[in-house]
Amino acid sequence: MNRVGIIGSGQLGWMMILESKPLGIEFNVFDLEPGPAATLADRFFTTGSENEFVRTSDAVTYEFEHVSDRAIDLAEKERKLFPNSLAINLKKERYREKEFLRNNGFPIADFVVAKTLEDARKKTEMFEKSVVKSSSGGYDGKGQEYVDGPRRDQLRMITDTYVIEEYIDYDFEASIIMARDRNGGKTFFDPSLNVNHSGMLLYNSSPLDDYGMRDIAAKLSDALDYVGVLSVEFFIKDGKPIINEFAPRVHNSGHHTLLGSSISQFEQHIRVVTGMPPMRPRLFCPSGIVNIVGRDLDYKTKEKLLEIDGSRIYWYGKQVRRRRKVGHVNLIGDDRSDLDAKIETAKKILYGDHMADFF
Amino acid sequence: MNRVGIIGSGQLGWMMILESKPLGIEFNVFDLEPGPAATLADRFFTTGSENEFVRTSDAVTYEFEHVSDRAIDLAEKERKLFPNSLAINLKKERYREKEFLRNNGFPIADFVVAKTLEDARKKTEMFEKSVVKSSSGGYDGKGQEYVDGPRRDQLRMITDTYVIEEYIDYDFEASIIMARDRNGGKTFFDPSLNVNHSGMLLYNSSPLDDYGMRDIAAKLSDALDYVGVLSVEFFIKDGKPIINEFAPRVHNSGHHTLLGSSISQFEQHIRVVTGMPPMRPRLFCPSGIVNIVGRDLDYKTKEKLLEIDGSRIYWYGKQVRRRRKVGHVNLIGDDRSDLDAKIETAKKILYGDHMADFF
User: Fold this and answer.
1) How far is CA B303 from CA A22, A27, A82, A264, B353, in A?
2) Measuring CA to CA, how many Å separate B126 from each of B87, B148, B150, B165?
């Protein structure tokens, strides 16, 4: 188990390599175009070399689940794919994910499916307020519209399949990152409180009370017969967790594990997908991140961010575009209010009062 | 300050890159032959391309101080070298380092210098027991001999310049890792207790009482007008610190900062040599390492090491040779005795009862 193949070459793969290279692993990276992870890969593969990619990898995992069906299929056929493709297939169509969760008794928002705009508009009347999402594609707030029941004509999105979800007037958003190993053993990172802006994660912080998230994530990982790091996002309403969605991989809301933790989600993932023992994660102190979205980092800004006592910068080396995550700042605090203050400081340094220029 | 040049391509440079790549830095690496750090470098340079190496680097540092005088000289001429060459020049000849320390009033073992074997033998009579070292070269216990005063004829080493030091019957060895920035600002990691086997570091653990080491290291860094991470090794005798030697760079006895710390010595070094703000290091829990020397790591051994709760492996990817450091295991403990027990377990897994086969 010396060579791991990663499908996708974005920042998640880049951090997987940075964090687990010390384990003595070589990395194959597969993508349509080389991204950040390609710069650290021992070998980069692209379309046409799926066979070679899988053949030369002892285990195959992915940092983004929608890159190459062919590479996924080949890896699964060779019994090298971790996590398996069930999670990927569920994630291809949001209605499948939702049906799977409902059929397995997990708490989710009520939903219906529609195939035409007309039908979707009609079905929004079932709920006082609804969120209509394109069943496939769409992330970071793209491909979704909010609809008040009485004003259903406002829905304009054109897509193949609509998922009309009851809008949850939640108190806050949270997530939990866990790892399930090949023997079904489970390790959990502390949950985090996530704050979005314009559909994208702006910042988060950990720890957070459990609210039952750990149990739900554990059961979900069993239901998926999952091997790897699994991320589950929740709405918390009146102290109860409702699954928003899961991600079959490391996740932006787990980046805080890179500072103030005994192990990061990235190394934990690579450990379990290669069959190596995971570490029981310890969170040493309150820890959080602020995402860097849609802006470059000049030297002066970097300096200001690093002057915050207990900060690290992750700059992914990607081209900057509005609404694109190009890095994040890790922050630790002596206590919760210290961390909160540092998050505010970092936000101010990055965006001032002009958030809308970047997100 | 986007491109840093590292002279030397060993594991220290490799860990510098792994740890500080997230800061958005590109790395030039210079060495006579490509080592581990070359596999992560953005560009590798070798003999003949010293000019280009320095020209394309915004700051130049070194992970090993004896690789290329030419690259060091060029970088210093361009005012890009951090730390400056004073420390390097002192380290070229052990007697210069000792004289510098003595002239500046630092606590060291008494010593004399000799140019011939005959003179060296005679001078060993000055001390009840002495350690005779070759003034240049020599590390990890190479190039040194122990001599009892009355048996001075036992000295056999042939070298250019001999440093005859009074043997200190110390209680234990310790070291401190600190960083000095361009404004003279200082940050300190917790000191560690170091245990050697056959002249090489076998394991160490942190924290340790200070014994005045912090003050001495701070003064030494000022005396050297130092910028970067400085490592100072001590003998502790009757509660008093005596400098054994310093290393003008990150150091094996600082590898414990890779687990259970808010920042590693490697990132701290890159931050200060690029003029970026250092982090105040926090040691979250007792932390230590066991060196992997002279042996390969099969999958089963890796698994056993990672089954120790709170361990990480750093495998440098070097060819294995007897008495060669090829990796280390990081360990954290809930308390000191928990850590000590884990260190024992790791030592047993790695060496069993056959230490001499590896060291």
Assistant:
1) 14, 19, 19, 18, 20
2) 29, 10, 10, 10
pTM: 0.96
How many Cβ contacts (< 8 angstroms) between chains A and B?
91
B297 touches chain A (CB under 8 A): yes
ipTM of the complex: 0.95
Most A CBs within 10 A among B256, B264, B276, hence the mutation to make, goes to B276
Q: For residues B1 and B54, is the Cβ–Cβ distance under 8 A?
A: no
pLDDT score of A315 more than 70: yes
Predicted confidence (pLDDT) at residue A24 exceeds the cutoff of 90: yes
Q: Tell me whether A303 touches chain B (CB under 8 Å).
A: yes
Under the banding of pLDDT at 50, 70 and 90, the label for residue B136 is confident
Rounded to 5, what percent of chain B is helix, strand, coil? 35, 30, 35
Per-residue model confidence (pLDDT) at position B139: 65
A302-314 core/surface letters (b: 16 or more CB in 10 A; e: else) = bebbbebbbbbbb
- The separation between the first and the last C-alpha atoms of chain A, rounded to the nearest angstrom, is 41
Cα B31 from Cα A154, distance rounded (Å):
65
Q: What pLDDT shows up at residue A312? A: 98
Confidence class for position B148, pLDDT limits 50, 70, 90: confident
> Which residue ranges form the domains of chain A, and what is each CATH number?
3-81 (3.40.50.20), 110-166 (3.30.1490.20), 172-357 (3.30.470.20)
- Measured between CA atoms, the residue of chain A closest to residue B275 is A303
State the average pLDDT for chain A: 95
CB atoms within 10 A of CB A107: 14
Residue B312: which of A22, A259, A311 has the nearest Cβ? A22
Q: Which amino acid is at A182?
A: R
Burial class, A289, CB count within 10 angstroms (exposed 0-12 / middle 13-18 / buried 19+)? buried
User: What was the pLDDT predicted at A149?
Assistant: 73
* A interface test, pick of B23, B280, B283 with most A CB neighbours within 10 Å: B23
Q: How far apart are CA A114 and CA B320, in angstroms?
A: 62
The DSSP secondary-structure symbol of B197 reads E
Residue A141 confidence (pLDDT) = 66
The b-or-e profile of B274-298 (16+ CB within 10 A means b, else e) is bbbbbbebbbbbbbbbbbbbbbebe
User: pLDDT by residue (tens digit) across B181-206?
Assistant: 999 999 999 999 999 998 899 999 99
DSSP A130: E
The answer to whether residue A36 scores a pLDDT higher than 90 is yes
Question: What whole-number distance in Å separates Cα of residue B327 and Cα of residue A350?
Answer: 39
Spatial neighbors of A154 by CB under 8 A, at least 6 apart, are A145, A147, A148
- Using a CB–CB cutoff of 8 Å, tell me whether B285 touches chain A: yes
A284 in contact with chain B, both atoms CB, cutoff 8 A:
yes
pLDDT tens-place string over residues B264-297:
999 999 999 999 999 999 999 999 999 999 999 9
A182 part of contact set with chain B, CB < 8 Å:
no
pLDDT digits (tens, 9 = 90+) for A79-116: 999 999 999 999 999 999 999 999 999 999 999 999 99
CA distance A325 to chain B (A): 14
Is A315's CB within 8 Å of B23's CB? Answer: yes
Give the per-residue SS3 of A268-280.
HHHHHHCCCCCCC
